[in-house]
Amino acid sequence: MVPQSVPDNTCNTFLMTDYYWLSAVPQTLRSPAAGPVAQELEQLRRQHQLILNAVGEGVYGLDLNGHVTFVNPAAAAMIDWPIEELIGKSMHAVLHHSHVDGSHYQREDCPIYQAFQDGSTRRVTDEVFWRKDGTSFPVEYISTPLHDETGTLIGAVVTFRDITQRRWAEDILQRTNEELELKVQQRTAKLREANQQLRELSEMRSRFVSMVCHEFRNPLNNIALSVSSLNRYDAQLSTAEKADYLLAINANVERMTQMIDDILVIGKIEAKVLEVSPEPLELVAFCQTLLAEQEYHRPQLPIQFRCRSRQLMANLDERLLRSILSNLLSNAMRYSPDENIIRLKLAKRQATLILQVEDEGMGIPRADQRHLFEPFHRGRNVSNIPGTGLGLSIVKQFVDLQQGTLQVTSKVGKGSTFTVRLPMSLSASSGT
User: What's the whole-model pTM score?
Assistant: First the structure.
């Protein structure tokens, strides 16, 4: 820190000037026999000495060579030196010989020394003084040049204070401010993240509502058209034609019902009210039963089941697992030509359950794969095949609820493979 020049008009300056002057009075003038003037001077000297001794700050005087001419008790106590040992010593060598890092402090660079070289007052707030035992302490000091009655520079007076406590308080305050600033930054980041999530949620809900309206419009239009045709052409339609219209109405109603069920499930997931309830489950028998149910609806699509174990126990939520496999198998059957083989593979690797559903269907374009698990998203190559676009979104969220992972590999015209990894033992929890 560059020393600061301050006006040469402090109380300590006058006190020390008087002290220097009084100290120069001959001893003969200080004796009671020397007369009233000498007695007054002696009395004044004693008063100033008492004041100097009572000052809580460290005070010492230097001659033009930098040697100590006087030291008050406070200064001697702070540097742990006896007063009598300091008189006549180079004070720079005693207490100001090194920087805070221990490197040598040249006397010529010392603001205290400079004060009685150029006659300017120096104030310094970022240096250290050294005690007799070799330890240092931070100080704030003022070095004031002294002049005699003729204006001649005769030395300097240094006033200093130990600012250890202040530095400690400043450090505490700085650390506190830094911690508060960090907390503010963290809270700000969380608020920013929360706001971003709210915006994304709002956008998602807007898209969701729009998609729901769009997806419901088609089956409703089909139902309306079928009903209108039945009403208008009832007399001209054959029994078989009427049956076809009724089957179309029923299919569209089932599609809408499935969408409503799926939307309710997604709503529960988003509201974090869907509970995960794991229980012991024998997976081989579970998968075989599920495959039988699926093949009942599409007997022309065989499903191969592969598992090296005859029995495989796990602690999972049966309801969620059923929905995951049902949606994956339904997709595989929906987008695979008749007679193509679908495979369900079950395996265990350490504490992880691995489920794979493979098909030889039309595959998924690469551009669609990044959006595959978004609600209502459907590949550009399946627009002519009935579907809600909600099944894979539900699968992804059910897998996430059970701390699992879901991966897909696909090639157009070759087929797709969905791989689900779940922990073998899942603890009960809510969907939070």
Answer: 0.45
